[in-house]
Amino acid sequence: MSKHSKHSHLHSQDKSSEAYFDNTHKVMLKLSSVSGVFLVGIMAAILFLVITVVEDFTDDKRMPKALSGQINLQAIDFKDALTLPLAGKWHFTQQILQPSEFDKLIRKAKVEDTTLDSISVPSSWQDNQINGKTLSNFGVATYRLDVKLKEKYENLYLFIPPIGTAHKLFVNDELISEDGLITDQASLSAPSMTIGIYPLNYVGEHFTITVQVANHNYEWAGIWSNLRLGTEVSLHEEQYRKVLQTTFIVAIFFTICVFNLIQFSLRPESSQPILIAFIAALLALRELEFSFVLELTNIYDFSFNTGIRINFITFFLTVMPITLYFYVRLREEMNRFIVYGICVTALICSAVALLTPPKIFSQLATAYQVFCLFVIVYIVYSVVLATIRKRENANVLLLGTLILFAFIANDILTNLRIIDSIVLVNFGLVAFVMCQNYLTYTYFINAGVQNKILNVSLSSKNKTLEELSENLEQQVAQRTQDLEDANLKLKQQVNEDPLTCLLNRRGLAPHFERARKNFEDMNLPFSILIIDFDHFKKLNDTQGHDVGDIVLESGGLLMKSIVKSPAVVGRWGGEEFLVLCASSTLEEARKIGEELRKEIHFCLTQEINFPVSITIGAAEIKQGESTDNCIKRADEALYQGKLNGRNRVELSTA
């Protein structure tokens, strides 16, 4: 072979190798980008679920509450497809009474002008005091609630949550639900905790709920979750949402578990994947038991002892792999003896939960929650220290850790009755595991292609130098143009909403500043319209999210075609849009709003063959008023428009 041929052959091999490494690098980058986008998407979904759960909790807090064993629901119309928590102060006595016997007790109290004892529902009865004395957590009791409605309903149903640890529930004198065995004798007790939705069989405008409860087997006793009253459809829809929420969480945990087991089989020298898989498996099992989703869907019903044991073992044991995972990543920041102490404590408590009855191991819960708070503080301290020292990926690790431990702290403080909140730890666990799975995945990818990346980088730099030496001016011009194009594209991405191609909040900001300046300098008024699609969640649920996107996109295009300069329209967030009516009075803005309302209702209803409407709140800037306050008044007018029936333009009267 001639020298020329040999040189050509080697050159050809170099080019083939370079192309191979280049393709590998591109694939790696795409995989990392896709995983990053997936992580952001999951985080957004978690945030949405958290907001939904917190909104439901907040709505429940605004509902009527029981006082002295009575709850007045005469202002509530159950035809509006809502469910109502029967929370507040219920009558309470630590003896088993039939409904008729409780009636006599109430009549006797009225005759003697005395007050019956009451305790808070939901709560464990030992969290309450009667006559200055804390109640024992073991024994029997009877709860009583008088319910007043505004009319007679023929389709009311009652959702009955787990009641600890055996109960009979009567509506008036009729036995509606029975779970476990009610008895004064602990040796004869048969604990059980199930849930269900039961018809109330044509109750009138006034009825009573009597709940007999016995607990000889568990640390917490009584009604610790809300009974809910509503129509059959509304109650089943509420439980269906909970099933979907649990399915989402369990599916993520299961997927992460399988994915990390595959990673561990390919690279067994790293312990991170197997720890993440173990954590995900424990969390999936705990979520299935804790949410009662298997019972709701008639797939499987855990016995009382099995369900409580799974609940506590997964709670106790999960602390160990989580701590070990942090120790593997942060060996220089964490003390191994402290880590070993945490793991031994978790194993001992798990063994107690496995080998002893619920009456014994459930008493460890409060102390273990306090222990978890100290573990949280120690791990957060270690992660913050690693971030300060600029350890690799410490920022992502810190993000997942803070989300998880903030939710854990919220739940522990809620269970300890220090704050009034709602259980959110499952969402924090999903966020945490997703962040750690992302770190494990990127580590796996980087370790597998590190040498190839170095070769690609070297080859790319050599090639760039050769090209620069051949035609430096042309490349500089090209790079300059590419940079300008990139800057223009970046500016569009920053200032525009990707779905509707309308301005976003950042893009609207300069227009607000200009309108404000014209108002202050030349006394030119401006008005603001805030637009919200009515019943958008219902549209998404019934027609699908793809149809929801069509409504937002087409609605944005319609608004853009109707709103003429100097007015400007943008997407304010979610299904809300904002129109800045520059140089317009409130009346002129109202006319624009009416045109928008009519056109959107007509065009979009025709387009998707489903009724679409919008409600608009309008406000005009006042002397001495900030732009933010004007927006707030428009938003308040929008809210008033919703209350006044929707599909209207509501003017701010403030």
Structure commentary:
With 654 residues, the protein is α+β, with helices and mostly antiparallel strands. The protein has 17 helices and 18 strands. The strands form four sheets. Strands 1, 3, 4, 7, 9, 10 and 12 form a seven-stranded mixed beta sheet that branches. Helix 11 runs antiparallel to helix 12 (472-495).
| Low-pLDDT regions | 2-13
- Using the CA coordinates, give the radius of gyration: 32 Å
Q: What separation lies between the terminal Cα atoms?
A: 92 Å
Shape: globular
Note the main sheet.
7 strands, mixed
Topology readout:
Layout: H1 3-62, E1 70-73, E2 83-85, E3 88-93, H2 99-111, E4 118-121, E5 129-130, E6 133-134, E7 139-149, E8 156-160, E9 166-171, E10 174-179, E11 196-199, E12 206-215, E13 228-231, H3 232-266, H4 272-291, H5 293-296, H6 304-329, H7 336-355, H8 358-361, H9 365-388, H10 394-415, H11 425-470, H12 472-495, H13 505-522, E14 526-533, H14 536-543, H15 545-562, E15 568-573, E16 576-582, H16 586-608, E17 614-620, H17 627-643, E18 649-651
Parallel strand pairs: 1-7, 17-18
Antiparallel strand pairs: 2-13, 3-4, 3-7, 5-6, 7-12, 8-11, 8-13, 9-10, 9-12, 14-16, 14-17, 15-16
Helix pairs in contact: 1-11, 3-4, 3-11, 4-6, 4-11, 6-7, 6-9, 9-10, 10-11, 11-12, 14-15, 15-16
